[in-house]
Amino acid sequence: MSNNSSQRLEELRQKRSEAKLGGGLKKQEAIRKTGRGTARDRIDMLLDEDSFVEIDSFVTHRTVDHNMFLHQTLGDGVVAGHGTIDSRKVFCFAQDFSVHGGSMGEIHAKKISKIVEMAERAKVPIIGMWDGGGQRAQDGISGLAGTGELLDRFVQCSGRIPIISLVLGPVVGVSSLAAGLADFTILGEDHGQLFLSSPLETPEVIEGEIDAAGLGGANLHASRSGIACLIADDDDDACAMAAEILSYLPDHNAAMPPFLETADPSDRLNPDLETLVPDNPNRPYDMVKVVEEIVDDGDFMELFSSYADNIIIGFARLGGRTVGVVGNQPKVLAGCLDIDASIKAARFIRTCDAFNVPLVTFEDVPGFLPGVVQEWGGIIRHGAKLLFAYAEATVPKLTLVTRKAYGGAYLAMSCKHLRSDYNIAWPTAELAVMGAEGAVNIIHRREINAVEDDGKEVVRAQLVDEYKAKFGDPYVAARNGWLDDVIEPNETRVRLIRALNILHSKREWSPPKKHGNIPL
Fold first, then answer.
1. Measured between alpha carbons, how far is 347 from 183 in angstroms, rounded to an integer?
2. Most buried by CB count within 10 Å: which residue of 11, 221, 389, 435?
3. CA 318 to CA 48: how far, in whole Å?
């Protein structure tokens, strides 16, 4: 090899070493001391060993204003490329907080855009690890232009390939919108923060009413805003959560979710379910326990567990096949649907439908939550989102009614009239316009009022018993074909798996249109 070639090779190796240093060893060590990993640490945690192939490690920003020409760093503050997770191909990127605080300049944004576009073309998932202080002020409008391209790429990918965001540090400004466009957003408990407006510009923070964590911390976004689907203990835990979510999803929208062999027999009976639902219809129980008793190996990956917890959503498997679970939670607000629950479930239903994940609905709903706050907040529009999402979904839809299915909430929870494929109920199910007490008070109002005061309760109780005898069971719906069967609780797993196996090949045709107009 000639001296010239050797020099060139040495130059290449030197540049690679320089790129790996990011903002320098001192800054990288300072990041590690806070309990966070560097961008490359995080990529090593996420991907299979030695599988990472880096792209654009030599790009630099091209800003000359504000003395930025003195601060050119190879890679421009983001590490990007592709690798494998459990041998599955993924594209990924990680913002480098050691370079300009992870801020997003024009080239930084374009580098991420390129990776996202490559992922969409290759039809493989994209995972982004966010840790940066928003848009780089020194880049001006050029930085916004690059960020706009990035946002467009994410939108074009939506519903085509799975997108997962890991927010592992402070993410401010338009970058938070990019992170929020993902199908699933995971925040690190100690360091993950999302703000659209900087805490430095937020009046409540300036006046000392609230701190940065209270404004945009992980627990806030998990319980109040509904942005965080999961909270991770640390960077390693966040990467493990992303890998688990990915295990339930296909690589792209034209593929089927992975099938995972299970030792859990498909004909396993569920005797515990026979005593799980209380005889008293007003007593609560935990729907999560119902789900865990039925699904493979009791594994239910619940998402958004702290947000709108009157409804549960998450991934599980039945007979090895991925399913998206939606269920009313009777132990919170008696399982009523409200604004937040409707939005939470509707988004998940549409995500499952986009990626060919069948839906299994566990229904015990007394209705929509009444009240001024709900009506003024737009429960009509938000409740319609849930109904719209179910009606629009073309994946296999299975519904089990365990107890109450009343009124508009019954219709919104994947009923037969919205073209659900397989609807069954336990003998404890009640399908009606409303509960017996409420119905009697409306239907027989004059009759009850005509009775002397001391006899009112006796007459009301008698009428309630009559109404329950007529409507307080699943057989009226079954006689009309709106339930496919009434089953014993202990055969629930068997029935759902058999239905899922036959519906696996379901294809549904819809008339051509650009898209529906969901009531956003």
1. 9
2. 389
3. 28
Distance between CA atoms of 230 and 232, rounded to whole angstroms? 6
- The C-alpha atoms of residue 20 and residue 43 are separated, in whole angstroms, by 12
pTM: 0.93
Separation in Å, CA 490 to CA 8, 62, 75, 401? 71, 66, 58, 14
Q: For residues 91 and 60, is the Cβ–Cβ distance under 8 A?
A: no
Amino acid at 311: I
Report the alpha-carbon distance of residue 296 to residue 15 in Å, rounded.
Answer: 50
Domains and CATH numbers, the chain: 17-247 (3.90.226.10), 271-429+473-503 (3.90.226.10), 435-472 (no CATH)
Cβ count within 10 A of residue 475: 14
Q: Which helix (H) or strand (E) is 178 found in, with range?
A: helix 174-180
pLDDT tens, per residue, the chain with 520 residues? 567 788 888 888 887 877 787 777 888 888 888 888 999 999 999 999 999 999 988 887 666 565 565 566 787 889 999 999 999 999 999 999 888 777 888 888 999 999 999 999 999 999 999 998 777 766 778 878 888 999 999 999 999 999 999 999 999 988 999 999 999 999 999 999 998 888 877 887 888 888 888 888 999 999 999 999 999 999 999 999 999 999 999 999 999 999 999 999 999 999 999 999 898 888 999 999 999 999 999 999 999 999 999 999 999 999 999 999 999 999 999 999 999 999 999 999 999 999 999 999 999 999 999 999 999 999 999 999 999 999 999 999 999 999 999 999 999 999 999 999 999 999 999 998 887 777 777 887 777 777 777 777 777 777 877 787 777 789 989 999 999 999 999 999 999 999 999 999 999 888 889 999 999 9
d(C-alpha 185, C-alpha 227), whole Å: 7
Q: What is the spatial distance between Cα 180 and Cα 157, in angstroms, rounded to a whole number?
A: 14
3 CB burial (10 A radius; 0-12, 13-18, 19+): exposed
For residue 171, the cross-strand partners are 132, 194
In whole angstroms, give the CA distance from residue 467 to residue 441. Answer: 11
Q: Are 359 and 396 in contact (CB under 8 A)?
A: yes
Residue listed under structure tokens 């399982």: 335
CB 311 within 8 A of CB 265: no
